[in-house]
Amino acid sequence: MDAQVSPITITRHGAVAVVHIDHAPVNALSRGVRQGLLDAVRSLDADVSVSALVLSGGPGRFIAGADLKEMALPPDAPFLPEVVGAIDACTKPVVAALDGAALGGGCEIALACDLRLGSAKALVGLTETRLGIIPGAGGTQRLVRLVGVAQAIALVCEGRVLKAGEALAVGLIDAVVEGDLLTEAIARAPAVAKRRLAALPVPVGDPAEEAAAAAKALKGARGVPAIAEAIRVITASKDADFASGLALERAAFLALRESPEAKALRHLFLAEREAVKVPGLEGAKARSVSSAAVIGAGTMGAGIAVALLDAGYPVILVERDDEAAQAGVARIDALYSRQVKSGRIDEAHKAERLARLLPASDYAALADADLIVEAAFEDMGVKTDIFRRLDGVAKQGAVLATNTSYLDLEAIAAATSRPEDVVGLHFFAPANIMKLLEVVKATHTAPDVLATALALAKRMGKQPVVAGNCDGFIGNRIYAVYRRHAEYLVEDGASPEQVDAALEAFGFAMGIFAVSDMSGLDIAYAMRKRRAATRDPAERYVSIADMLVETGRLGRKTNGGWYAYDANGNRTSDPAVTQIIAEARAAKGIQPRSFTHEQIQLRLLAVMANEGAKELAEGIALRASDIDLAFVNGYGFPRLKGGPMHAAEALGLPTILTEIKAAHATGGAGSDTAPLLAQLVAEGRAFADWQKASAPKGGNT
């Protein structure tokens, strides 16, 4: 076997030595990179023929940060502080040539250099708090000496990534080079003086400004322990020397690295990269999409149109008549007006996007569209009729997408003569804001159509998750079980307020009943009525939500659902709901019992993970981590818990299995134990093990 090629090479340009980092795709700080950098810096420092060093990541790169896959393994020397320390201690000037991302540990390496030159493509930032940790190789201590306490708190706690001009303005880089960056770095290197940030004092700042920066960071922390630790470590630098600050930072980093929150955030980070690896797409090329269309200009259709306009597409908006089409334009105009009012865009950007919007009431307007998204009412008859009409007007090769959230994609595709062109694009409301996009694959969906959907998601800034076809796909199928068991808890003795409080204590921004009121109880009501004829009679059914709808309580839009709402939208408990619940219990002879927050949390987590295990076994979800991405990005599952499958794994699958058996006794049919869950417990394995061993491997799209 050939010896492993080092990712670090050295070239000489007279007395200047260039240390090249080449570890595709982003020069992550793997063990090989760390060892190679350490060896190179030490050997060049000892070489009397070398007067200066340049660190280069190659065209379009520097170092994008840690190798997160290694962070899940036992620590392996050399550690990053040793590498950064060697650069700092080098007796010869070291120039960092930043032609791309210098993030996290890459930024810490750059800060240890004496001069930082960036191209226009440079991106600089200490982004560790996004992963539940803080910089651990001197990043906080060097940064604070460069920009002061208040600015350091803001940059670190927000995990802000600065473009070249912004980095220059705050002093993170010393110059932006317009020509060839490496050539300029080599030319400047011999005249560079040593400038160790470690030797600088912490600038004297305004205590009020520093306190305001800390308060703002804590307000936006949302329970992330790393934020408070970053503030503590940065603030302490005012009263400590560099070595003491370094030790304080490292201790905090090591403690946070092993925290549940950091593990959950690392899990999601890696899950995002895995989600676009889909079996069967190796070599598939996305179809060209230069124009798009949306059928249906209601709330969802308008949001989808905005998402497409924001991505740069011209959009045709089709409705049943001109009046409905103009109403859709007004909705889109209102969405953009809110963005202008909030300062997200200006009037010029609004006008530019609206100029690319073409309202129409004739399907003939769709003849040249490359992508058509149907966003009509959630009714199979309505949707199949639309797709029959599309079959006659859409050009060959056009991608035909449906925004259905529950309906059978196979049946919708069968309404056309080209089922290979049909794909599900399940957006989440509000469609222009919510990050999740469920990409649903039917039996005949062509690989290049699926690749097009994934490319579209990337262009729109969405997180795609590929799902197989079933009632509710990945997310709504699990959510239906989650909601059903929340209603069982209420019928058995908990109040809606208690269930929501338990979920909010777990980390949800809103509990399930408050969310239902916001969405509208009539939506789930219609879905239940559609399923009534095929519902297993052995499945427990709670009629409380039906009773609320049938008395006119549809949620926030009627100022009453599970809660009562005042004119300002504030929710309160409603005696009328308490009475309806009591009557429903009495009708079934249920003696209400009490539940703790922990019991409610465990039950609802268990049923989500159990249904997720069924989806994995059936191939509806490719990976447990895909389910986690769906729930974190589409259903408000707390990021710090990593998604329902990760959270179940962290709690212990034997505990989940025991709880599912109790849930099955409570819920009957549909709540039975997933065979995969039972198998994993019997074998002492977890979802992560199953994912590694069983999940199909596909190429990057």
Notes on the structure:
The chain has 701 residues and is an alpha/beta fold. Helices cover 49% and strands 11% of the residues. It has an 8-stranded mixed beta sheet with strand order 12-11-10-13-14-15-16-17, sandwiched between helices. Helix 18 links the parallel strand 16 (436-440) and strand 17 (463-467). The chain is globular. It starts with 7 loop residues before the first strand and ends in a 7-residue tail after the last helix. The relative contact order is 0.07. The mean pLDDT is 95.
Layout of secondary structure:
Layout: E1 8-13, E2 16-21, H1 31-45, E3 52-56, H2 68-71, H3 80-89, E4 94-98, E5 101-103, H4 105-111, E6 115-118, E7 123-125, H5 139-147, H6 149-158, E8 162-163, H7 164-170, E9 175-176, H8 181-188, H9 207-219, H10 225-236, H11 242-257, H12 260-274, E10 292-295, H13 299-310, E11 315-318, H14 322-342, H15 347-355, E12 357-360, E13 371-374, H16 380-393, E14 399-402, H17 409-413, E15 422-427, E16 436-440, H18 447-460, E17 463-467, H19 475-492, H20 496-506, H21 512-519, H22 521-531, H23 544-550, E18 564-565, E19 571-572, H24 575-588, H25 597-618, H26 624-634, H27 644-651, H28 653-667, H29 675-683, H30 687-694
Parallel strand pairs: 2-3, 3-4, 4-6, 5-7, 6-9, 10-11, 10-13, 11-12, 13-14, 14-15, 16-17
Antiparallel strand pairs: 1-2, 7-8, 15-16, 18-19
Helix pairs in contact: 1-3, 5-6, 6-9, 6-10, 10-11, 12-26, 13-14, 19-25, 20-25, 25-27, 25-28
The mean pLDDT is 95
- Quickly count the helices: 30
Poorly predicted segments: none
β-strand percent reads: 5-15%
Strand tally: 19
Largest sheet: 8 strands, mixed
User: What class do helices, strands and sheet pairing give?
Assistant: alpha/beta
- As laid out across the biggest beta sheet, the strand order is 12-11-10-13-14-15-16-17
* Computed CA radius of gyration, to the nearest angstrom: 28 Å
Approximately how much helix is present in the residues? 40-55%
In one word, what is the shape?
A: globular
Could you give the distance between the termini?
31 Å
